[in-house]
């Protein structure tokens, strides 16, 4: 509108990106590309042993910090394999707690690697001088690790988060009121309508997470704050001070919950209309006729289920596919399963977005990574979910709750169960109708999610922050924030008032009794 | 974007508007005109004794409900005059409480008039049949009174609010978590950073308001719900169930606070660029030279300060203006003040928006009505505030807190004070700079506020509601919402565990003591 002029005028901003490795980089990369194409200059901070973030790029400058250990493929795959074998076994409370602690010790060592990188960076006077002189307009960071908040504070420049998780858990919990009575914790598997027992579990889960964070993760970052900042600063407050939180969800996907003025929802920002398929794939798809196509992919990282713990599963899945009248395109990088049917095409890579947008595709077998789930939602394709790790169950659960997906937990997966789920999703029309409805809702926004994100990044550059959108309530002590001091004070006042009233009434009564006594005498 | 097609397709929606009288109608009217010009058909519900809402209109059909008493000018002016004489006197706590109760009894009788209208409407079988058959797509209502929520539920159609106040107070308090530790109550005069004493007062103020609402207002609407709805329904829940809340604020104006996914901010939706002034006014403005112009208006309702209680004030103001080197345009409908200077032009009406957008205008003397405050903010003109009633002090206070306005409380207003305030606002450049900064922030939005409002109204028509954006947490009992039942349960569990541990340890100890004793013996 009439301000578009000033918006357009803001070109040539300088953005310092502090990303996280792996799949997190995949989505940060989309913002980096978009910022570059809008005329901004982007510098990306990376570790010397980076796995996904390349040193050379046509659309960003990289700044490399040397580290002794990085997040390489080996580190991640070892952790994933451990997780998967846990998931396939029957769970008990003890096993679950043990597993949680094991996961947190893995997380803890991951954060230790990050902290080494931050320390190396700050100690490198030459690098810090260069960063200071670069006069960046803002830091764009993924708060699932703490480097962004620390660096932005060190350089005294505005901070924008590309966020779903912070070092403390789901991002909203850091910034918005989150009543645990109807906001399920990630990993709890609950919806926004919980029974009493579920609410008890949800609060216990929260306490456990809080404890683990305060023991394993926060102290590492706090130590850096204490060492390098002159004034005493709480690391959590540093994160809460971010100007804008670009959340990678929207409320078609996420359960409705309280939010804050500086939270911008860009869920599905990575989605786009599909392009035509390559010739050979199109021929295969058309050969399916009216039965249509099923596609299966377990995400970028998991080309195949871990061989040592899940080779049998691969055979069960292949055998189930073989019995379907549909044709199947399966991203599978391992050995060809013995039970593979003629209708199933194994591929090393598939154009997921283009397939999901194809009218012949009837169902999507997915692990529940954010990217796949959002693309399925965008194109309105129903999902059979095989959740493996992290937030995958929760992602799929949100689709299932709205009638667009069917989840198969890893420990009950076999041919019969898989076949049944596939047939249900294909033949019960409600799955497709629900996904199509979600797709319509998601697409019916005043502005594309990616444009929304870019607008607010540029807004922060134009106005050097967004302080007017941010409460500073997080600086209050917790008992003041919850008004416990005021309630205590009022309770004492009320108690005192009652006490004195009773005291005075008793005095008067006594005196009257005394008088009556004296009269009688 | 790619969905604009479906957006454009939605034309010819049928909207039933349930407005409130007076200044509330002034802003609802803007939405009505805009909906009409987008091709929707709008019906407006009005009382037979309506003051502001005309029966005949070129852009809406009116539906008239007969009432014995309406909100006429007399009712409002009598109430205002009472308020003003209170405001000019010195306050004490007792006086304040007495005044609050008097105000609430006035409010109560206003709501009684509304309830009479709702009852007459529901009892009019012909009218209800007609409304039912009209098949409206949504009800657009002002929730400062309860007719909209009741009617929407009765007709079973989606509900959108054009809101700043509900029957319970400030709109956010009904729908979003509102920690009283940093969210000041309207009328408290506090900011979002409160001292301990202020926080105590804020909570007391809240309790008083809650009490007064539950005694004077809610029961009237609840009686209607109990009489006309078969299932037991809580009136407050009816209001909380609205699909979209179009809030008449934004966070350039309002203090940052928690919000909800179904709250849309359209603060300043009534503002627009200025048009050239009429010839004679332009000549007068230009004659001011470099000193520029001051404009003064006390809003649509208050053409002059109440004669019986404030005739002296009018003279003081005129005398102060007479001493300024600026020229003054003053909307004043009363007698010409004796002290009027040559530099002051009295007018019955002024093109406020066009004047505020004029570069010669240096300051705006305003009563703090939402409309004037928003227009001043939009055009970046500093304000000298003379708050009279209702939310006017709070509106001005938000500008003052950000350095764009100076408030003169009614009880200290005289020539000297007024002159001093005028000179400060004119000569301290920070006032203008701050207002200009607010103006830039306000205008830097991805979408015009009015377009945003229209988008979400049409969204609700397209999707027959917006249930996915609305939590249903308000249906929980308050102790469950705040997890008090879970905390109680866990406390009992912990207590029992400690008790049994102590018990068992004591038993073991006793037995050991006994054994030792026996051994010794």
TrEMBL record, chains A, B:
Pfam families: UDPGT (PF00201). This is UDP-glucuronosyltransferase. The keyword tRNA-binding does not apply. InterPro entries: UDP-glycosyltransferase, UDP_glucos_trans, UDP_glycos_trans_CS. It comes from the Eukaryota. It is found in: Membrane. It is a single-pass membrane protein. SUPFAM superfamilies: UDP-Glycosyltransferase/glycogen phosphorylase. It comes from Denticeps clupeoides (denticle herring). Keywords: Glycosyltransferase, Membrane, Transferase, Transmembrane, Transmembrane helix. The keyword Transferase applies. GO terms for cellular component: membrane. It catalyses: glucuronate acceptor + UDP-alpha-D-glucuronate = acceptor beta-D-glucuronoside + UDP + H(+). Belongs to the UDP-glycosyltransferase family. The chain crosses the membrane at residues 486-509. One of its GO terms (molecular function) is glucuronosyltransferase activity. Its EC number is 2.4.1.17. It is an enzyme of class 2 (transferase).
